Amino acid sequence: MSRPSHSPPAFEISLQPAGGGWHCSHLYYTWDRYALAKMSAEQITSGREDAISALDPQGSDAPLRLQTSITSGHKADFGLMLMDPDPLKVDRVHHRLLSGPLGRALLPSYSFVSITEISEYVPSVEEYGQRLVAEGETEGSDTYQAKVKGYADRLQSMNHQRLTPDFPEWPNTCFYPMNKKRKVGENWFLLPKEQRNALMSEHARSGMAFAGKVSQLITVGLGFDDWEWGVTLWAVNPDYLKDIVYRMRFDEASARYAEFGPFLAGYITTAEQMLDHCAIKS
After folding, report:
1. One domain, residues 29 and 77
2. How far apart are the C-alpha atoms of 131 and 71, rounded to whole Å?
3. CATH number for the domain including 29?
4. Residue 54 to residues 22, 66, 89, 102, 111, Cα–Cα distance (Å)
5. Residue 3: strand, helix, or coil
6. For residue 176, what is the enclosing H or E element?
7. Model pTM?
8. Range of the domain at 144
9. What is the pLDDT of residues 161-185, one digit of tens each?
10. What digits encode the pLDDT tens for the residues 210-263?
């Protein structure tokens, strides 16, 4: 009796996203004050040292990106944004916190799991050129060629930032998940691609008005979490978080087709500063 042959897989088997991007987790926690009150000074001191080590972006087992923030309001006390090609390295930070001395006093309050990607709505150089012509530029003119070259020069670095981002050194941050509607008369996924492109182009122009004030990263939760996309914003001033969200609500892509989850706003800190702020002291 012959056995079936086992041909090699057609695609590489890997935990790393095939598109060259990273896994991303937004994790939020609340301190259990009742549990903290039962801990000795020595336990809290040991717990602080362990948490600071676990949340050290330069630690030997740290993911490639690790950011801590103090979260405003009652939704959480602090949040983490973690990114790495290896999802298990991202997840280990969570388990190290829960298994550490302060773990008994930590309550996970929210999470969003996603990956980075280059959106289908990012125009190629050719599509950008076609858009210029549609907006009145003469194909082949000096102005047209200068704009196309400028876009081509920027595109590689912009796509690199979308897939493997550096975090801006700005202190104000906000995260929220979102969906595109699938309602009768407002079904984003039944719109022609050309119409979706036009709507997202309008949306992008609104965002570009905040260059130098706000930095944005969109990660994809489709197949990973309950919401389809996650939006992370960093701003030089908290006013600009408000302003950009308000301005973009008027774009049809948002006003008609978007649904939003909870907003979690906070302020970037070190782990030690977060612990001090949350009064986790012996």
Report:
1. yes
2. 41
3. 3.30.70.1030
4. 20, 10, 12, 12, 18
5. coil
6. strand 172-180
7. 0.91
8. 121-163
9. 999 999 999 999 999 999 999 999 8
10. 999 999 999 999 999 999 999 999 999 999 999 999 999 999 999 999 999 999
Number of domains, the chain: 2
For residues 130 and 71, membership in a common domain is answered with: no
Per-residue buried b or exposed e for 120-146, using 16+ beta carbons within 10 Å of the residue's own CB: ebebeeeebbebbeeeebeeeeeeeee
Helical pair 41-54 and 87-99, crossing angle rounded to 10 deg: 170
Burial of 98 (0-12, 13-18, 19+ CB in 10 A): middle
Phi, psi at 66, each rounded to 5°: -145, 115
In whole angstroms, what is the distance from residue 183 CA to residue 181 CA? 6
Whether 32 and 97 map to the same domain: the answer is: yes
Q: Which two tokens stand for residue 18?
A: 């095939």
Q: Which residue has the tokens 């972006």?
A: 57
Q: 155 and 86, same structural domain?
A: no
Are 120 and 200 in contact by the 8 Å Cβ rule? The answer is no
Is the pLDDT assigned to residue 20 strictly greater than 70? yes
Nearest to 217 by CA among 111, 83, 17: 83
Question: Buried (b) or exposed (e) across 18-33, using 16+ Cβ within 10 A?
Answer: eeebbbbbbbbbbbee
Give the side-chain half-sphere CA count within 13 A for 253: 18
| Separation of alpha carbons 108 and 31, rounded Å | 9
Active site residues per annotation: 176
Q: Distance between CA 108 and CA 28 in Å, rounded?
A: 6
Question: Same structural domain for residues 36 and 112?
Answer: yes
